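Need tokens for this chain, all 369 residues.
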Amino acid sequence: MQTELSRRLGVEHAIFGFTPFPAVAAAITRAGGFGVLGAVRYTAPDDLARDLDWMQEHTDGLPYGLDVVMPARKVEGVTEDDVEAMIPEGHRQFVRETLAKHGVPELAEGEASGWRITGWMEQVARDQLDVAFTYPIKLLANALGSPPADVVDRAHANGVLVAALAGSARHARHHAEAGIDIVVAQGYEAGGHTGEIASMVLVPEVVDAVGPLPVLAAGGIGSGAQVAAGLALGAQGVWLGSLWLTTTEADLHSRALTRKLLAAGSGDTVRSRALTGKPARQLRTEWTDAWDDPSGPGTLPMPLQGLLVAEALSRIQKYEVAPLLGTPVGQIVGRMNSERSVQEVVDDLTRGFEQAVDRISRIAGRSGS
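Here are the structure tokens for all 369 residues:
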């Protein structure tokens, strides 16, 4: 399953796997794909360095990349305290009432509140890049579009390709103008932040808009036949995220959440602003319903919403409060009905791809005879 882009990067299969888990990213790379480690959860540069050290030890010298989250426009002098001060008290009260309604316990005194979405703030991402560029990463991806121009220049100076996610052909053209090397066309079906255009429509539009820049297809891809469809639409590879959440290498810290993912169907997700303030596809829960209810206060813009709900989500996850427990995930969750190793997932994708290509080849052969 090779394309011009996969050969350029030196990988066996044109499967690009995004994940917040180092063990999953490394396993994707070892299985012949291209593992991309999500950096947004790292608020301390030393923690990122620790896991990149681990990646170095467990990727057998094969290529991997890093995904950061940063705005295209540089913003100076804004601290986390500044952002916290912008959160209205009414929204804080709504969080307290929602947690109380479901009997969610408080964290123990002195216990850390867990991950806070400070990675949405530009300086955190820049600190991450100071670390990342000391490692032999081959790709830098940005989930919020084109990174600032100086970051693109710095990546290129380090021999690192830059990828950016796009939800429309217009966004993709902006990326091309900004000097991006790879556009990830992410359809409405995908987990996390998405636009409103489905992959079947979006991918060929983006391919036409930015060619000859390579495009990766993302959203609603979880089988080899779907990989083949993405390549048939003109993509040079696929970008997969949700599919790895139920692999044995993933570390969700919650068996209850894993069970919910395994039981969910493709109709059990919702595109909601409840997590970050931007539309993000995730499991539909009573938490997302509360925030999407017109009688509520409504969500805040990014990054206010993420900071507002960080401690609440930590409590929900720690105590596994099932009605509220969720995670970003795409509609492909309907196919994620068993726990498999990363290698088994990649084997299934490549086998299904070969079967799909053979099937189309037979059809093409008959029509040409």
